[in-house]
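debug: dumping io for the single-chain case to check the tokenizer round-trip. Nothing else runs in this session.
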Amino acid sequence: MNRQILYELKQQIPLMGYLQAHDWQPARPLGPGRWMGLCPLHGDHQPSFLVDANKDLFYCYESSCIATARRLAYLHQRGIRSQALIEHMRIGYAPGGCLRGWLTQLGHSLPALRQAGLVTGVGYDAYVHRIVFPLDGNLYGRSLSLAAPPHRFLPGSKGGLYAWKEAQSHPAVILVEGLFDYAALWEAGFHNVTCSLGIHLNAHQLRQICDCPRTVYIAFDADGNGSGQQAAQCLSRSLRERDITARVVSLPEGHDPNSFFAQGGDARQFQSLLEAAQ
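debug: decoded output
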């Protein structure tokens, strides 16, 4: 569906008219043509659904709905291709320009928002035009704009291993560097996967992965400078010293798990890489 068709469809069905036809009522105004109300996309107990009638746009703060084709295209390109995976990873979108106003209306002070890392020192939203992933004790935002730094976390520790509660029940675990690597493997059916959010595990993550006897397949990037594979070898030695069976997965040169699947690799081929890991 091209942009012209989308534009013509929006002209035929104005957003406010559609919402009102389905009995949606605003709870309070936010300004000319802008309202906040209960979200019709999920069970909502306090207003979290922002409607901008001037721009014919909506945004939900508690939902993982990604509202535009560009964001969906980006996720698809990075291996996130199903609604089930979006919901599993609780992926959202931070447009910027509205979070500070909404949170201050709920009674949160500006100094508190700055301290939490949600607002910059000069008062702007810290997460702007970013795909966001809730973490264990943090929040990761991947920029969709080339003009901004690609990665953003809240201040403090990056937290524990990603989705560890699900992965830890498996006797063998696949450890990857990044969230998009995790997504590609989960989409391919490998649900015994976790992510360290970088090549270096913090003390909490190391304790998690060593909490019981298991096999750990380390599938770090096979980048050109060798840093990923060097870190994998170092980590494997550290795990073996703690009586954990560790295997280093050798990906094709220049690939990480995400690009391996994005460029045509499949589950059977990746399983062969796991079986060949040393």
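debug: round-trip ok. The radius of gyration is 21 Å.
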